[in-house]
Amino acid sequence: MATASPAPLRLRNFATRPWARALLIGIAIPVVGAAFIYLGEVVGIAAILLLGLVVPIYLGWKRPRQLAIAGLVILLLSAPVAGALETNLIFTPSPSASSANTLPGGNGGSILQNASVGPFSGGPGTNFSFGVDVFPKYDPPNTTLHDVVLVVSTCPTATGNQTSPFCSAGYPFYLQNHTFNVTPNATFHLVFHQALPGPDIWWWTMYAETRATNGSYHSSLLFTGPNYPTVEGPVTGSWGSIFGIIVGQVYLYMFLYLGIVYYLALLVYTWFKTREARRKAGATLPTAPPPPGAPTSTAPPGTPPPAPAERHCPNCQAVVYESETQCWKCGTSLRPGAAPPTAGAPLPSTGPGPKGP
User: Fold this and answer.
1) Model confidence over 28-71: pLDDT tens digits?
2) pTM value?
3) Which residues of 120-134 are buried (b: 16+ CB within 10 A; e: fewer)?
4) What are the counts of helices (DSSP H) followed by strands (DSSP E) for the chain?
5) How far apart are alpha carbons 46 and 155 in whole angstroms?
6) What domains can be seen in the chain, in order of their start residue?
């Protein structure tokens, strides 16, 4: 009666089929793209190593060339998936923002509150409205509200014209300033209008400038997080045009982070694989056959070779070895067919005694 194969063996046999391998790569593509966009580069690296190396190797993909091709396919096809997901995020309106509510930016509350833009997306040339609620009562002590400034640019870190160290010179930049001739006391809503070209992705911020009694100024920016003091949006252009802008950057970053780590890991695996193959080849090298007529040794491995056979010299009876051709003591030839020694022949070490007087 035949027994069923173990589950891991059945799974590996299933994975040897071409369509099963294509299915695994098809699963890896959206997983890697989504992990890269939603969870960051580190999780994206872990996803491609798991689905591009660990699982395939476990399922029997032992050839480095197959793994290299699989990784390339995953990278090439997951980048557009990541680009589409990123485009959807870009078209998602950013939440409203406010300035700091503690000193030195605020005094028990935020001077600028509920800052937002509408509409969030539109075609090139759309006139966008940037609105904010202004609370002069939260000015820092001994200061008065002087003006509110709007900054709009395609550079995420720009708060001035051509002053960002993170963007190349020449980026679009728009600035509007609303100065108060009379110091406001009550809360009011302020709106800026700005037409923007496209297609492009824009960033913006606002800041309130308060003037101290000594004539110095202090700026209170919108607080949007620890990275940039700007809010993402609005967007000018269609979904396809924005996707075309960012997909190249997604390819660059995915190959830069995920691709380099993946192929370094594949290189390490290939090195260990080659080393293991050489070790196995060295352990199975054939030994040279013994010469014809040589006795075959049946001794177990590790047994020391037997000592050479001994015999006696026919002349002096000294102990000699089988391989010797001449007696070490008397010099008699030990070769087969040699003339027998003369009876009574003296040993080389003994000669006739001294003659008497």
Assistant:
1) 999 999 999 999 999 999 999 999 999 998 888 888 999 999 99
2) 0.70
3) bbbeeebebebbbbb
4) 7, 12
5) 31
6) 8-91+244-276 (no CATH), 98-223 (2.60.40.10)
